[in-house]
Amino acid sequence: MPVYSNLFSYIKGYNMGNKTSYQAFYDYSLALFSIITILFQKQAALAYLLLIVLLIVGISKKKVKFTFNFTTFLFVLFYGFYVFYALYTNHVTDALRYFENKLTFLVLPLFFFFLPKEKMAFKWTIRGFLIAVCLLALQSLVFSFSNYFKTHEIGSFVSTRFSYQHHPSYASVFYTFALLISWNQRKKNAENYSLYWLIPFSILLLFAILACMSLAGLLFLLIFFFAVFIYFLATKIGREKTVLFTIISPVLFYVMVMIIPPLKSQWDDAKNFTITFVNDPSTFLKDPANAEKGSAVRLIMWTISTQVLIEHPLGVGTANVDDYLYAKLTKLKQYKLAKKYYNPHNQYLQSGIEIGVFGLAVLLLLLFKAANLAWKQRNYLLLFVVLNLAFNMLFESMLQRQSGIIFYTFWMCVLVVFGAHFTSTKKEQIA
Fold it and tell me: What's the CA gap between 350 and 175, in Å, rounded?
């Protein structure tokens, strides 16, 4: 493969006379980073070792320069709050594991403070990500077919029985972003983005997104497509007709949900649990039957997490969240749910409880700064990543697992840093 041959030739010292060789080395390294962290997550340390080698080469050959970026520095500050609040931890071992899991918040922003002096194209950075996501989907399909031939259950193709490598919520994000970035490359007339492979690739991704059965992921995808379509309509048919379509589209969405059985089931559960909760919150929270139902569990965890945050606005300490949620659940006599040690299923609540409202403020400032930058630069890839993270954090603690931490930090750093570092017109994308 050209990725490996060019990378190794650079490391061995060939092509040193070519001023763009470090840029190629940089591009291939970021591509391999995505491949390793998506397909071989347990070997993520190798991906970071690759970046260290890349940085050492760049500094030694004077191919990079230090450029501070405040937006990505907020990741470092966010990590610093977890370090500080570890002083109050009741679980030293768990706190140390947090440091390791969230080390990406420190390492990647620091790495991206050292930028190549020459302009980057990121051709293989994007291709590497797309290759990794494609292989991930194919692995999932093979795994599902293998289970299906053994069990003859159609459920072999949905949720965790399909996405066994990553939690479905995270895998859904990978597939959705791959769909967007591949067509963005096509729109820019990038090399080798032919419809002959792009159409079947998109069909594979759409199937994978549906198979993951992440309600938040599906809802965000629909909202995103809807927003793009509305923008398209506004430029083609005028404002009045677009407003009319916008008004009737929720009805169309509701009809679609009602005719797709898995979505209808999740929708009905969420609606019924919400109505029951609003009518009698106290009874709902104490009902042990709700400990077995996904949507009901989320309502319970959100409620008690909000209570903990209100009682401890300055935070309870790194790795101490489980203790406080367990105490709340046992007080409600939700013993079965308490023993599962679920997180709040909401990153805003998770961070607020753990590192306080000031730590949460850093996270919110990071989202705002990145979104504002994306809007000013018309960097729609960055805007997508930021909005996707902000939306998914309402339903999952997206920055608690390596899958989410690495993906969001990596792509936000790439899109923020290089969008700010290289000059471009407002209509240009950086990748």
Answer: 25
All residues at 6 or more sequence positions from 236 whose CB lies less than 8 Å from its CB, including other chains: none
Paired with 116 in beta bridges are 64
Across 235-258, average pLDDT: 68
pLDDT at 319: 92
Strands 114-116 and 64-66 come out as antiparallel
The phi, psi pair for 65, rounded to 5°, reads -135, 150
* DSSP 8-state secondary structure symbol assigned to residue 242: H
Stretch among 61-65, 283-287, 345-349 having the lowest mean pLDDT: 283-287
Q: What is the mean pLDDT of the chain?
A: 86
What CA–CA distance (Å, rounded) separates 152 from 154? 7
How many CB atoms sit inside 10 A of residue 104's CB?
A: 24
List Cβ neighbours of 151 (8 Å cut-off, separation of 6 or more). none
Own/partner pairs, 304-311, CB within 8 angstroms, 24+ separation: 304/328, 304/329, 304/332, 305/344, 305/346, 305/349, 305/350, 305/353, 306/349, 308/353, 309/349, 309/352, 309/353, 309/357
Residues 25-36: tens digit of each pLDDT: 999 999 999 999
- Closest to 101 (Cα-Cα) out of 88, 114, 83, 74: 83
pTM: predicted TM-score of the whole model, two decimal places: 0.88
Task: Please name the residues in contact with 6: beta carbons below 8 A apart, sequence gap of 6 or more.
Answer: 24, 25, 28
pLDDT band with cut points at 50, 70 and 90 for residue 280: confident
Q: Output the furthest CA–CA distance in the chain (Å, rounded).
A: 73
Query: Could you tell me which residues are beta bridge partners of residue 115?
Result: 65
> Both tokens of residue 275?
């109505």
Query: String of b and e for 203-241 (b: at least 16 CB within 10 Å)?
Result: ebbebbbbbbbbbbbbbbbeebebeeeeeebeeeeeeee
Please give the full DSSP string across 151-196, using - where no structure is assigned: H--GGGGSGGGT--SS-HHHHHHHHHHHHHHHHHHHHTT-TT--HH
- DSSP letter string, 51-69: HHHHHHHHHHTT-EEE---
**pLDDT class for 427, splitting at 50, 70, 90?**
very low
